[in-house]
Structures are given as C-alpha cells and as structure tokens.
Amino acid sequence: MARFGIAPAQAFGVPSEPIRRLAREIGRDSALAAQLWDTGVHEARILAALVIDPVSMARKEMERWARDFDSWAVCDHCCIHLFRKTPFAWDKAAAWSGRRREFVKRAGFAMMATLAVHDKQASDKEFLALLPIIEREATDGRNSVKKAVNWALRQIGKRNAALGEAAMETAARLKQSESPSTRWIGADALRELKAKSLKFSAGKTG
C-alpha cells in the first residue's frame, strides 16, 4: 500500500476482491455503512462506500466523509462507486475543486473524471464549464491533486470529438506554463488526447 502512496492511519491490508465479495453478500445497508465509516479503518471505509444506498446520503454526510479522507484510494472509491450516484455530484465536483484539503480537492477532480465516464445524460456544455476550473487549479503541485486534475482533463477529452478538441486546447496552454506541475498535466494529457483524437477521426472516416 505504501508503495502506491496509500498510508491511512488504520489499515489491515485486505485486498480489494474480498471486500467487493463481502459487499455483494451484504447488499445495501446504510446503517451498517455509517458504522463501518466511523471505525476509521481503511478497508471498512471502502466497504462502507460499496454497501451504502446512495439515495440515503445527504449533503452534510458527503461533506463529512470527504473531510475524513486520508488516502487517494478511499477518496476515489467513494467518488466512483458512491458520490457520482447522488443528486449532489456536479455541485460537489465544482465546490471541492477549490478546497484546500488535499483529498477533498482531489475528490472534486475525481468526481469530474468519473462523471465524464458515467454520466451519459450530461451535455457537452456542462463539461466545457469544468475546463476553466481544471486550468485554474493545475498549479497545485501535490501529487494526488495534480494526478486527479490530469485525470479529469483526460476523461473529459475522451468523451467525444468536440470535447476532445476543447480539452486539447486547454492541455496545450497548460503545457506552456512556467509551473512544473501545470506543464506535466498539460503534456501528459495532450499526449493521450492526441492519440484518442486519431481514433475519433478513424471512426468518422471508417
């Protein structure tokens, strides 16, 4: 876990698959999820995100869970498997992206990335509105934040050809920055988005 930058206060070292298997056996149980979360144990919190009913999660509870994040793994797990399914997903993506706490801020961009993959009903306009936020926050040099900013930019750009063009324009500007983290985000995203753009073009001509 430490090798992958996961260093929570309490952890047992249980792999993901047994946790997922246990979650399937339990099903939805929001009361149990609340108890699991409050233990503070890494694996218990991952299990909590899998068994809680997203409909039962209130704004205040989302905020409390986000403040409790102590690793990118729990942060991303909650965003991918739980938070994106709540009615507050888009609001929190924008709000958290401007926060100071490392993993709350990461959660904002992890939400953008996962919404780009899973929210099939969202319009291009909604994703275009996120690009200025990505550009604004790309100077944050903390590893877990800059990787999430990069992730969000890449996933938005891979959604379709139009968003790909807009994301590449953003990435190109970031690549020219004097900030090392900003340059890295721009260069890395641009490389992947250009490859995806070729696939979009091939799909049109094919």
Question: How does this model look, in words?
Answer:
The chain has a domain at 87-205: Alpha Horseshoe (Leucine-rich Repeat Variant), CATH 1.25.10.10. The chain is mainly alpha-helical. Helices cover 69% and strands 0% of the residues. It has helices at 16-26, 30-38, 42-51, 59-68, 72-81, 89-96, 102-118, 124-128, 131-137, 143-157, 161-175, 180-205. The protein has 12 helices and no strands.
Short description:
By secondary structure, this protein is mainly alpha-helical. The chain contains twelve helices and no strands.
Mean pLDDT across residues: 94
Number of beta-strand segments: 0
Annotated CATH architecture of the domain at 87-205 = Alpha Horseshoe
Helix content: 55-70%
C-alpha geometry: globular
- Cα end-to-end separation: 44 Å
N-to-C order of helices and strands? HHHHHHHHHHHH
Percent range for β-strand residues? under 5%
Q: Low-confidence stretches at least 5 residues in length (pLDDT < 50)? A: none
Q: Can you tell me the CATH topology of the domain at 87-205?
A: Leucine-rich Repeat Variant
How would you characterize the largest beta sheet? none
Structural class: mainly alpha
Number of helices: 12
CATH superfamily of the domain at 87-205: Leucine-rich Repeat Variant
The top level CATH class name of the domain at 87-205: Mainly Alpha
Radius of gyration: 18 Å
